[in-house]
Design brief:
The chain has 2 domains: 227 residues, Rhodopsin 7-helix transmembrane proteins (Rhopdopsin 7-helix transmembrane proteins, Up-down Bundle); 25 residues. α2 runs antiparallel to α3 and α3 runs parallel beside α6. The chain is built from 9 helices and no strands. The chain is 78% helix and 0% strand. The protein is globular and about 50 Å long.
Length: 262
């Protein structure tokens, strides 16, 4: 069955825009030092997104009749679940940085290595196992677990935002911004497609996720790129200052034009 035009457009934009920017941000994360942000988890998130974008290019056109599609689907599902896990780890790290900045173990090198290895092993082992055993609903249940975690992290961060004097106010704002973007990403791109999947029977001819939910899911790559803008120290403030300067310049020019016309 042919895909709708808007879904093909979103896939085309992801391949032409998100793919090169993901390469660029991985390079920047390796070269540029981001102060007190979960850059290690973010790099793993970008790497899993990069793999998904590459698989979008490698999907065979007549996928129900090709063994290559099944392998691509398994890898894509593994990386999609890994991306979700790393977004959850970023939220937990940011929440711990505000609530208990001195006792956060997941930011230490040993804790990061253990968590990263566990996430990748879990996704690469259990996702194919669930698919082969026809237990796809187990993957969907795991995909629902980050919902209360992301919401709780945002509530805890907002609770400690005003009373925490040990963390700079700018970092508090960045942390809240990161948590808001992660929660919006999950609510818009992940939650609808997971809920809609519970209404279909696996391995049936009628199993098909609505195209609008697939479109929202593919738009999630843009929100992951937006995280880099929020993570960079002072970048948002500089952008706001530039915007304010442009607005002031336009207002001055308009006033000058109105005076000259009078």
């Amino acid at each position: 069955m042919d895909q709708p035009t808007y879904l093909n457009v979103i896939i085309w934009i992801n391949i032409r825009v998100c793919l090169p920017f993901t390469f660029l941000l991985i390079t920047l994360c390796c070269l540029v030092r981001l102060d007190r942000v979960p850059v290690s988890y973010y790099m793993n998130l970008l790497f899993s997104n990069l793999t998904q974008l590459i698989i979008l290019i490698a999907f065979p056109p007549n996928f129900p009749y090709y063994l290559g599609y099944f392998a691509s689907f398994i890898i894509y599902a593994c990386c999609a679940l890994a991306s979700l896990c790393f977004r959850t780890m970023i939220a937990l790290e940011r929440c711990c940085s505000i609530s208990c900045p001195s006792s956060s173990c997941i930011t230490q090198t040993k804790g990061f290595v253990i968590v990263t290895v566990f996430v990748w092993v879990f996704c690469l082992v259990f996702v194919p196992l669930f698919v082969l055993l026809r237990q796809e609903y187990s993957c969907l249940i795991f995909a629902l677990l980050p919902a209360p975690v992301l919401l709780t992290c945002l509530v805890v961060a907002l609770k400690h935002l005003c009373g925490n004097m040990s963390v700079p106010a700018e970092e508090n704002r960045r942390t809240v911004g990161i948590l808001v973007i992660l929660l919006i990403h999950y609510s818009v791109a992940v939650f609808p497609i997971v809920i809609s999947s519970f209404g279909f029977q696996p391995y049936s001819d009628r199993f098909k996720v609505p195209d609008i939910y697939l479109t929202l899911f593919l738009l999630g790559y843009f929100l992951d790129l937006l995280l880099f803008v929020v993570m960079c120290k002072g970048l948002i403030e500089k952008l706001l200052k530039c915007l304010c300067c442009c607005c002031r310049t336009e207002n001055v020019e308009r006033k000058d034009d109105s005076r000259s016309s009078v």
